[in-house]
Specification:
This protein is mainly alpha-helical and 130 residues long. The chain is elongated and about 65 Å long.
């Protein structure tokens, strides 16, 4: 990552894209284990971590809040979802329709994040060319 204020949003978007990629892997793993008895679905949370980082900032403006985020603490957190719940008698709690819907949603998010990163770099390039 680049350590200058110009790249604050890009660095946060990069962390979000990393977490989205991590979530894609977790969802793919859930789908791969759909027939594994006792398997519990895994998921990745990032938004709550980002919200907490922004909420605990002493700054007022969003630019300052984003600039004050400790990037080394900003990452996706993998967790086991609905540990005590199961759809089936074998203890597995993976539902293929849910996983496919979450995968599609996460792919849209990842594509949006990468487009936002591209747009930020285009803005920087435009500013440098003026």
């Amino acid at each position: 990552m680049i350590n200058t204020d110009v790249y604050d949003y890009i660095n946060v978007l990069d962390k979000a894209a990393d977490a989205s990629s991590q979530r894609n892997k977790a969802i793919a793993n859930n789908i791969a284990n759909i027939d594994t008895p006792g398997y519990k679905r895994q998921d990745v949370s990032f938004a709550a971590n980002l919200e907490e980082a922004l909420r605990h900032s002493r700054f007022e403006s969003l630019d300052d809040k984003v600039g004050s985020i400790r990037l080394d603490r900003l990452r996706g957190r993998q967790y086991t979802d609905a540990v005590g719940y199961s759809y089936r008698l074998d203890g597995n709690n993976v539902d293929i329709e849910t996983e496919n819907a979450e995968l599609a949603k996460n792919n849209l998010l990842y594509n949006g994040l990468t487009q936002s990163i591209t747009a930020e770099f285009q803005n920087l390039r435009a500013a440098m060319n003026k």
